[in-house]
Amino acid sequence: MEIKLIIEGMHCDACQTLIGMEIEENGFEDKVSSLKILAGENKGVLQLKNVTEEDVSTVKRLINAMEPYKVE
Amino acid sequence: MENTNEHGSDHLSEQTLYIKGMHCSSCEILIEKKLLKRDGIESVDASLKDGEVRIVKKGAKKFKPYELDEMFSSLGYTFSTTPVEKTAVSLFVTDKSGNRKISPVQAKKLFKSLFFVGGLIAAFFVVEDLQLGKFVSINSGSALSAFFSLGLVAGISSCAALIGGLLLSLIKHWHEQYIDAETTIQRANPHVLFHAGRFTSFFVLGGVLGTLGDAVTLNNTTLYVSLVIGVSLIMALLALQMLNISWAARFTPRLPKFITRVAAKDGANQSKLMPFVTGALTFFLPCGFTLIAQGVALASGSFFTGAMVMLYFAFGTFPMLMAISIGGLKFTSRPHLTARFSHIAGMLILFFALYNINGQFNVLGLPSLSDVSFAKTRVNLNTPSTSPSSGTVNGEQILSIIAKDFSYIPTSATILKAGVPTKLIVDDQGVLGCGSFIASRGLFEGFVPLQLGQNIIDLGSPRPGTYKLTCSMGMVPPVTITVK
Among the four A37, A67, A70, B209, which has the fewest Cβ within 10 Å? Predict the structure, then answer.
């Protein structure tokens, strides 16, 4: 399945690179469609493809473990 | 037996580098994560508050700031060996309520540097006005010591702006490249290579000029103008880096690969040989005095004479260039002086770069700052003269100029009729420096070397337009010629 996750606290290029690195290092590099900052909203959007429910919860857990980001 | 690894030893060394561009805790974490991925890194501690990163790694070899600049170029972080606060030029600070205001401390520092740089620039113009070149008479029969004297004069006047400015602009880069050097002699290595490259090329290429003789010409205006503007733009970029302008720090000027590939086999040696190659290439920078010496070398018709003429000229420029090297080494070896050096040298180089580019605009006949400075003089000179050489002779217009000291003085009207055959008569009464090579893009091609006495240059039938008559470097105050 495909899914979009809104990441709170993602506001700059450093955040984007950091989150991207964390996801890739945990084996999801082929499953990231896009990772973008929502300008002026202190948020970002992570779009995943070909993922299972378990993958999604793993990604959420990885991001939530990083300060100061939050994903629901 | 001591256990060693690829980094030279098991010994751990700590290095602190200062970072510009960090703004949040993510920046800290990102820098730490990316650095920890590199081999040999034991620990990394980036601090937004202090604007620095402490790196503990195996071996004594330290990171050079430009290596990390390249690694983080896409993220906009720049690294330096001096605290960002001390090198920042920003006049503004943000107070507790978030308002930006002028920092009195920064303003005081900036005005102090500006005052010092203003003094140096004033001294530069005073030395130029002294026209020391008139004490050095050069021709093909001159003794080698005369070329040394010519080099001495060149080193403290117009050539200082080009070669001196170029050397000054390279010092910070070399300092960062040799950051892990333990002795002054090691740090002096790029300076030694630069001067060695300069001496070598002046000797060898001077000899080549002597051998080729009249088979080559030194009057390719477009090539020389492009060279000077290109070098000046690089100087300006390096000056902006020294002034800590962040966007400028992302660009690292490099020599074309076809040159460095020949000079070295691998990247490390490549960058270490760069000063030699750069020094050697200064032979092609058309400082007016260099052109005079090259002209004599050409006329010599002998490899040895041409080589020695150019070598002695290079020896003459050496004291001033060596003073710049020693000054640079001294300042950059003391961290508390490095920031001040960067400020002052950056401003000075920026001035030299703009001075050179302004001169080339004159050579190209384009509007320049010289038009403002000399507008008043030009108005007075535009009135027809009563000089016997002015006016029309046998259906030809005559434009008469006296070339003396460091100026061209019109003795006839500088407003000409279009489409009428015209001759430019230059009476060389002892013109100095680059003034010996007259240029006027659009009126005639290239640089014309002047001989003492009358020089006649055929201008053909000039087309309507406004032209500038100046020297090969554009540094002689231009005379504006209007063709209607």
Answer: A67
